[in-house]
Amino acid sequence: MDFAFPPWSRRAAGTARPRPDWLTPAVIIGFVRLADVGVVVAAGLAARAMAGGSGVDGLRAALLALAILLTLNGFQLAGLYAFDRITARDHQLTRAALVWSLVAMALVSLGYATASLGAIPRSEAGTFYLLGLLGLGSVRLAAGFWVTHLKRTGRLVCNLVVVGAGEHGQRLVRHLREAGEGIRLIGLFDDRRDRVPDYVAGYPVLGTVDDLVAFVRRHPVDQVVVALPWGAETRLRGWLEKLAELPVDVRLCPDLAGHYVQQRGVSHVAGVPLVHVFDRPLAGWNALVKLIEDRLLAALAILVTGPLMLAIALAVKATSKGPVFYRQIRYGFANEPIGVLKFRTMYAEHCDDGVHGAVPQARADDPRITPLGRVLRRFSLDELPQFFNVLRGEMSIVGPRPHAVAHNELYAELLGGYLARHRVRPGITGWAQVNGLRGEIRDLETLRRRVQYDLYYIENWSLLFDLRIIFRTLLVGFYAPED
Fold first, then answer.
1. pTM over the 0.70 mark
2. All domains in the chain, ordered by first residue
3. CA 419 – CA 427 distance, rounded (Å)
4. For an engineered disulfide with 25, which of 83, 144, 451, 469 has Cβ 3.0 to 4.6 Å away?
5. H-type alpha helices, 202-284
6. How far from each other are the two terminal CA atoms of the chain, in whole angstroms?
């Protein structure tokens, strides 16, 4: 379905920009805190060097640690880590100067009380105060400019759609329209197209809930707000089953939360309290940690296995006609098609991109597989090029294994909730694989168990969980002969 937006709408989806999962207010404030710590440490080291000293003794190290502790707590109490005030320049600079001055006075008082003040020259102490004042002020200005730039370019704007164009949805949209910056309302979706208007307060009704699933694949959407009355329980249940597959935050207006909804907290959008139903699996610091983990491990893996991949590429080219690599289209994050790289293990005439028609899964003694391909598949060496997919941000080291397009669509029809696997990026290895759920999917029960393991991984992700899966993978081997 093609989605058309009125050219006069400043908030149309065509103006929406994707927001990185890790770029959240909590992460930005975390960076500001780290910058404050860096400034205090740098000011102490610079003051020591300018006073003619070198290195940091025990007394100075203790004072630096105390200065950091007092500064972070003082800034927190003064509201300097409140995201909604980070761009208020006067508020930030005056309070930062006041708190830093109080920290300096506390350190001086402690020095007098412990008779240790004489161990530090006055010039060094004065330089430390001035450098800290300048540095902490610079952090406030830089953070304010950064956040302003992110908001102006749309990188911090919450791209939001409303499900439900009835009375409740219309009332919510009218309120959100006055919310100002921070929210970009894209439009509405409702299954009752013949009973709702084409526009609500100037925002288009773009389609049904099924259309929303397709819409999210092609447009940046951060949050879906469901607006239905209490009595629409049947419709609400059906909508939530579909929305559970989306890699976005799903929220309910407070009067929509039935007893059957597992509540995950409450937040506010433009002053409206919203009940959390589903949260984006990886966001904020978790998304940033996952991104760093994937890039570092993928780069390391390519460096270590580079000579082996070169040898395999030469062997594939020498033993059968056709390309070295096999690029199969599979569904990735948010059900977005990606080209997954593998070393070619089949004869070229049997290779298929996995898009057109049914693709028979590879089986033991499959005549389509080359002799070299059998060896590569047995030891999962054909999967090595997928580390390049990880570097490109299309896959992760750990995550649900991606299936061929034809298989994916079949599995989605057979098992409800299957597409929820696409709420995170697919992985080279996964929790299901290291628990023995590898190879051809022969029956519905095998598929159900694999999906259960994948969803458990998504709901319980942590860095240690990833490292555990990677360690077990090194013991049992990578796999995806049927993938």
1. no
2. 13-20+157-278 (3.40.50.720), 25-152 (no CATH), 285-476 (no CATH)
3. 15
4. 83
5. 209-218, 233-243
6. 29
